[in-house]
Amino acid sequence: MGVAVTICPAFAGESGETDSTTELEQITVSAERTETLSKDVVTAETIQAPGVSGSVLDALGNEAGIQMRRSSLSGGDGSKLRLRGFDETRLRITKDGVPLNRDGSYGNGPIDWSILSPENVEQIEIYRGAGPAKFGNTLGGVVNIVTRKPTEDPETVARTAYGSHDTWDSSVAHSWKVGKVGWAFSAGHFESDGYLRNNTMDRDNFSAILTFDLPAGWQIGGGMDYSDKENGNPVYNQPDSPYYDSGEPDADEKELGGPGIGSRLLDGALAWGDGTLTEDENRSLTAFIEKTMDAGRLRLDYRLWNQDRTETYYAADTGKKIYERETEAEDDNWSLQAAFEYKLRDHHIEAGGETRSYGWGGQEINYIDPSYFSGAIYSPYFTFVREGFEGQPDLMAYHALYLQDTWALMPVLTLEFGLRQEWFRADGVDPDAFGFQWQAEPTDLSEDHLDPRLAVTYHPWEDASVTARFGITHRYPTSPEYFWWYLNNGTGYFNTDFNSEEARQYELAYSQTIGNTASFTVRGYYYDIDDYISSTTIAGVGSVYYNIGEVEIKGLETGISVNLPYGLRAWANFTWQKGDKSDDPYDIDNELSNQLPDLPETLFNAGIDYIYEKLRLRCWLNYVSDRDHLSDDGLETLGAYTLVNATAAYRLLSTQKLTLDLELGAENIFDEDYEEEEGYPMPGAMVIAGVRIEF
Fold it and tell me: Number of folded domains in the chain?
């Protein structure tokens, strides 16, 4: 069971760049005459609706082409979001235009979704495919999270919710601008028993920004994001385990940190039990300076981020502590980004660049009980299990410059051309970084590429647009990918060469709006990718990263939204996608029949919204087709599933200074049995309810 409460000043919508007073969620596509790139917008109502996971990630589940791959709802493990088949390492996730993608070392994932408070998010913009040169080395697209900005009228929002699995989700957000000074902050607490055995979650987060208006159109500001979370590591709970608990769902184990120690334990995954947990503290600092002009703007953004992680393992047989270590998973990684744009007659000129330095920090062993470990920990190759290692914070560097012009040739025709020059460097890995001498000769990786982007948009008639787009993108290894390739390179295990990915992207899109009544969009896309980076786990070897010679991904996305009488709005989107591969050195027997693993061929989302006076309702379904999965045991198929969900909000009180809403959310209403990731069943029917206040 669950409950949620909300307070807000405008019942049907939040104010922003577009008027959405009658929409609960945006499915339509904007196509401004000066732009060639369409975007989908998820509104604040959808983002802030009560959910058992307590994450802004849930708000993206109804969008075309998006697939979730979670091993639990409350999570804390690795990459969860896919767009057009591409995971978060191939997407560009930004907050107010500043990249949030981190290094992802030690299995912590490229994005820390827990650091984002839903109450502080105004909307989420989704750009797909080969966007303008300013968007950088993204394949699937860009997800930009737009936060609430300080306003002259103070705004305060508070909410609390209780739901299934003993879930509590509470938050408060406040923003105000007084004269030249503006500020906005949000804070939240989330806790849940979770669905899987030992997969509890306890999380606190805080975000703040402070801005100052200066003379001559200048503004400066700074902010911080902070989260402190404690996740229980899922325990192996299958009938073949001597510690099996039939009252908990059958599921595999999950190490939420890395490098994994399971293969070094005498009993492997059976060795650790209830109470095993991973604690993460994430800190991000930002600063900016911006100059606004009549025909353009200039902006500089800096970001610094750190993550500290503590892992504690408890024995399944005795319950005593057997292992504890501390890791600097992200160690003073930073990025600097500059952007300039100027409107000159029929040209919209944009130029800028970015630089980024990143790597992984050290690891310290606080406690180890050697009686639970195999003799491998005394090998010179695995001394890190007993002694830790130094890490290599400045392992990689990335630099880029871009220039693009969006030219309105005539009222019905727009041309966009851009170039992006990139430089990438990965140093040789110091033996002290991981605690032993390499078998391979020291090496490094240094590349530079000049990538073009081209798009043409034609408006054949009113409120319609056709866009053709082409782009070349390079995607460079993350430090975990590069490190594990480097580590295993000396073994000669089929990965003696390692290259960045090169993707040629093609897209054709059509969109049409009919007044305020309906909108429709259809997009077809094709990617041809050389040296696609993939990975697997090899018994006795560990993680192995390698290049697949060629991968092709193609698909079709459609979406429609119709405003109906009596306060109703119907919407739907459908995605067909297919991924083919060749020259896969791991799947040499072609068990996947040239298919990319874990890629559903069809995705379908549909729903209906209803607004009447004080009541707001939404009911929707999500369908995901079956997926082929290749594991150590061979080829498996993850079954298709259909989820039916609903939310409701009722305004109890509305005055000039105060509004009070009751909210209710229901997920997986028909108790569907399904998995997003092999080995980890997702929860059945869930309910959450609460109250939200705004004043």
Answer: 1
